[in-house]
Design brief:
The complex is a heterodimer.
Chain A lengths: L17 H13 L6 H17 L6 H26 L7 H18 L4 H25 L4 H20 L5 E2 L7 H4 L1 E2 L1 H28 L7 H23 L4 E2 H19 L1 H11 L1 H6 L4 H27 L1 E2 L8 H11 L12 H19 L4 H27 L1
Antiparallel strand pairs in A: 1-4, 2-3
Chain B lengths: L5 E10 L2 E11 L3 E6 L6 H8 L7 E6 L2 E3 L4 H7 L1 E4 L11 H5 L18 H14 L16 H14 L4 E5 L7 H16 L3 E5 L3 H7 L2 E6 L2 E7 L5 H9 L1 H18 L11
Parallel strand pairs in B: 3-8, 3-9, 6-7, 7-8
Antiparallel strand pairs in B: 1-2, 1-4, 4-5, 9-10
The chains are: A mainly alpha, B alpha/beta.
The structure holds adenosine-5'-triphosphate and magnesium ion (MG).
């Protein structure tokens, strides 16, 4: 009873050096555990193709524009990620973002609200709408597809109602618009990077120490060093490139901040695991004593919140709220992004980073084609093709996993 | 006689047109194994779900340690100390072994408690210990349960039931997917649980297994109790007869012959209907 578990002889051991990590990684890829690999490769291909076609693509100015373009939809897709984890879909997030933007505009321009109060109210509206819809979904068991489809239509109506005769509300510069026109100075950015690296390293080393003390397999120092190097490279590259223009956009920090926070909550906390459990097997979760209704409710509420924040960011970037805010391709891009990023539509599988990576894929395709002056007809067809390719790849990978 | 850990009386449950349980009764005693047997569709799993709160019964009284309790949801049963291995295992295939063992009760520590930060190290240590003590061979406790073999999954489900130090353990066909030595392990485990004073309910179609560990055997047939046996005082043939309803036929025979006797008083010496 006290003997430590002897490793199963069939378990393929991973040595503590770079070569065997590469081997074990290659093995995982061959067995269909692709993770974020396809989407990262996709981004590289996109970058090469557009840079070849138009040398302005990878310039600091264009990359800054790209991040500003994707921040709003990307934030909405963070909520969609959670909904997809449950194996559900939320079709109302585009409309919710429009309603909340309209509320924001009316409060700021017509009612003279301060920036913070207007933002908080708009976010509260998003949360309330999410809660309202989730009552039907989680309590009454009406399919989310239908409830949120009704929401898609109804909230758009509410948006038109709120905007009334005005049609378009122009936001004054300063206040709300600063969300997307503020850029971090190099000093601020590099301090932020230093803080992230230090915290991350401390957490990883602490975890490694705990696990080694407990006699559990732990990450080797080589592995930790590799991960830190990768993280530093990404953050440094972003800082160096974007600082050549106006600096790292605050909107990008907000969006990626949400992705990271949601990622941590989902992988490390009881709440996050309960969402994965409900998405994986909700009956098992229920029998294990989880409050399944509450968990489902919370996810739709969070999706409403992120939709509101996305709507605010979009209004901020466009300096205006109009009848078309939140309509058009906002919803479809938000869903497509998460799926392209590798989150399964069937629930229970995926990481928050799929929202970030998928949003970058969709955003850069759209941005690149604008640069080339391509018609939006071509843009739509290509985006559809990429989505189809991503889902096909995921399906084939899953088949590899089962075989 | 010792007080029953759990006693269920007059349990009825219907699913639309089916009377899955009809006035069934059932009891489990500390330090004792009771086997619940019956043909497919007899209502065994339905009874288990009623006792464990997974699917509450429509009618009936459940007493836990002599007190009437209401089993409205699974948490009611677990908080009393009832642990169940469901026939369908109720595992989340997308989560790893540790997460499944601690499903719904992940450990936290210190200030992490405030935000529900999971204490993975503690859970992984304990998971390894538990699985080793059950002689479960799983390559890594970080493997998603969906990629384990059927027997390994069953072992994980059993291990999960034991994690909460229950007073009553209900095992719904725990050995259905297990190999010879794993079945032996589970039966040994059942005996060990009983020796530790737990009440154990074992559902199995394998009468060999039932006779090797059970103290009592309760038979369900078409949603009703159809016989209660002390293992030592009965034979597999009697139990089989109760399961298949051969006893019904005997009663029918008896009634028929009694009627014959009544109608034909001048008849010759009767054969004993038993
Ligand atoms: N969710 C349900 N909906 C409708 N009918 C059900 C449901 N669950 C069980 N039943 C019916 O109730 C009866 C008893 O089923 P139960 O699962 O309890 O049988 P069992 O004794 O466990 O059989 P087995 O040995 O095959 O596991 C069956 O006739 C079954 O069809
Ligand atoms: Mg059954």
């Amino acid at each position: 009873m006290t003997t430590s578990p002897s490793p199963d002889p069939r378990l393929i051991a991973t040595g503590n050096n770079v070569r065997s990590y590469a081997q074990s990684w290659g093995r995982r890829v061959r067995h269909g555990q692709l993770g974020v690999l396809p989407v990262v490769l996709g981004l590289i291909v996109i970058a090469v193709v557009f840079q070849t076609a138009n040398p302005n693509f990878l310039t600091p100015l264009n990359l800054t524009n790209l991040t500003l373009q994707v921040a709003a939809t990307g934030t909405i897709s963070v909520g969609i990620f959670l909904v997809l984890l449950l194996g559900e879909v939320d079709l109302s997030v585009g409309s919710i973002s429009g309603v909340c933007a309209a509320v924001l505009g009316v409060l700021v321009v017509n009612q003279g609200f301060g920036t913070a109060a207007a933002i908080l109210t708009a976010v509260a509206v998003g949360i309330a709408i999410g809660l309202f819809q989730s009552l039907f979904i989680a309590r009454l068991g009406v399919p989310a597809f239908v409830v949120t489809l009704a929401g898609l239509i109804a909230w758009q109506g509410l948006q038109l109602y709120i905007l009334g005769g005005q049609g378009t509300i122009n936001l004054p510069t300063g206040g709300i618009t600063e969300l997307t026109s503020t850029f971090l100075s190099p000093a601020v950015w590099w301090s932020l990077v230093a803080a992230i690296i230090v915290i991350n390293l401390a957490v990883q080393l602490n975890e490694r120490r705990q696990r080694r003390n407990a006699g559990l397999p732990a990450r080797s120092l080589v592995q930790i060093a590799l991960r830190q190097t990768l993280l530093i490279s990404i953050l440094a590259a972003a800082g160096i490139v974007l600082s050549q223009d106006r600096g790292v956009p605050l909107a990008l920090v907000i969006f990626t901040g949400f992705v990271v926070i949601v990622g941590i909550v989902m992988t490390r906390t009881r709440y996050g695991q309960s969402v994965y459990a409900v998405g994986g097997n909700s009956e098992a979760a229920r029998r294990a004593g989880m409050k399944v209704q509450l968990i489902r409710t919370s996810v739709f509420v969070i999706a409403g919140m992120f939709a509101a924040i996305g709507g605010i960011l979009a209004a901020s970037r466009l300096f205006a709220v109009s009848q078309s805010s939140g309509s058009g391709d906002v919803l479809l891009n938000a869903i497509a992004a998460v799926v392209i990023g590798g989150t399964s539509l069937f629930g229970g599988r995926g990481t928050a980073y799929s929202a970030l990576l998928g949003t970058l894929v969709i955003g850069s395709i759209s941005n690149g084609m604008d640069l080339l002056g391509l018609n939006s007809s071509i843009k739509l067809m290509i985006t559809g093709g990429v989505l189809l390719a991503a889902v096909t790849l995921d399906t084939l990978a899953r088949r590899g996993r089962q075989a | 006689m010792v007080a029953a850990t759990l006693e269920a009386v007059g349990i009825s449950k219907r699913y639309e047109a089916v009377r899955a349980l009809d006035d069934a009764h059932f009891a489990a005693y500390p330090g004792s194994v009771v086997a619940l047997v019956g043909d497919n569709g007899a209502g065994k799993s339905t009874l288990v779900k009623a006792i464990s709160g997974a699917a509450p019964a429509g009618e009936g009284v459940i007493l836990f340690e002599g007190q009437p309790v209401s089993m409205r949801q699974p948490a009611d049963a677990t908080s009393l100390g009832i642990a169940t291995v469901f026939q369908d295992l109720a595992l989340c295939d997308n989560l790893d072994v540790v997460a499944n063992l601690y499903l719904g009760r992940a450990r936290t520590r210190g200030i992490g408690r405030l935000i529900g930060w999971r204490d993975e190290t503690a859970m992984e240590i304990h998971a390894n210990e538990l699985l080793t003590s059950l002689a479960v061979s799983i390559p890594s406790v970080r493997t998603p349960v969906g990629s384990l073999s059927g027997g390994q999954r069953q072992s994980v489900a059993i291990a999960r039931a034991l994690l909460a130090s229950p007073k009553l353990v209900i095992l719904d066909e725990p050995t259905a997917a297990l190999g010879v030595s794993q079945t032996r392990q589970v039966l040994d485990l059942v005996t060990r649980l009983k020796d530790n004073g737990l009440a154990v309910v074992l559902i199995s179609h394998n009468l060999g297994d039932v006779f090797s560990v059970a103290d009592r055997i309760e038979v369900l047939r078409l949603g009703k109790n159809n016989g209660s046996f002390i293992t030592k005082e009965t034979t597999p043939a009697d139990v089989v007869a109760a399961i298949t309803g051969a006893t019904d036929d005997k009663i029918a025979q008896y009634l028929a012959s009694a009627e014959r006797k009544h109608n034909a008083p001048a008849g010759g010496p009767e054969r004993n209907p038993q």
